[in-house]
Amino acid sequence: MRVDNWESKLNAVIHDTIHNKGDYVLGKNDCGLFVVACIESIIGKKVFDGKYKTFNQLKKIFKQLKSKDLLGLALNIAKEHNFKTIDISRVQRGDILYYIDKTDLDGTLGVCIGSTTMFNWKKGVSLMSNDKCKIAWRIE
Q: Could you give the CA distance from residue 35 to residue 13 in angstroms, rounded to a whole number?
C-alpha cells in the first residue's frame, strides 16, 4: 500500500538523485539503489539491503538471492513483496520499469514519472519513453 504523501516523497528522491548524489557509483548511487529508494519512498519499507562496491560483489549477492542477474533479482523482489507485473501501457507514476540494454547487467531499472521512465545510468540520469521498456511492476 502506498504511504500518505508518497508523491512528494518520491519527488524528493528524484530531486536528490539529480541534484545531490553526484556521479554514478556502483553500490552508492546506481540504477538499482535509485529504484530501491523510490520504492521505499512509495511504500515506506526497504525491499533490498545488499551492500556492494564492485560488480563481483553484486554478482555474489545475485547468487546468494538465487538470481542470475538484475532482472532475476527484480523478479524475486517483486514476488516477495507482491508487486504485480503490469502491461507497459498501464504504467503510472511510481511504477518500476525494466529496460534491456547491453551493459554489464543486461538491463537497468527505472521509475515511471509520467509518460517517461527515469533511469540512473553510468552516463547520468536520463529519461526514456515508457514504451521502450520491457517489463513493469505496480508498486503498492
A: 9
Q: Residue 2: name the closest of 81, 72, 87 by CA.
A: 81
Residues 34 and 40: their CA atoms lie apart, in Å, by: 10
The answer to whether 43 and 7 have CB atoms below 8 angstroms apart is: no
Q: What is the mean pLDDT of residues 13-28?
A: 93
Rg of the chain on CA atoms, in Å: 14
3-state helix, strand, coil in the chain (%, to 5): 40, 20, 40
- The vertex-123 CA angle with 119 and 125, nearest 5°, equals 35
What gap in Å lies between CA 76 and CA 128, rounded to an integer? 24
pTM over 0.90: yes
For residues 106, 128, 138, 84, the Cα torsion angle rounded to the nearest 10 degrees is -30
C-alpha grid cell, residue 8: 512528494
pLDDT at 110: 98
Q: Give residue-wise pLDDT tens across range 80-120.
A: 999 999 999 999 999 999 999 887 778 999 999 999 999 99
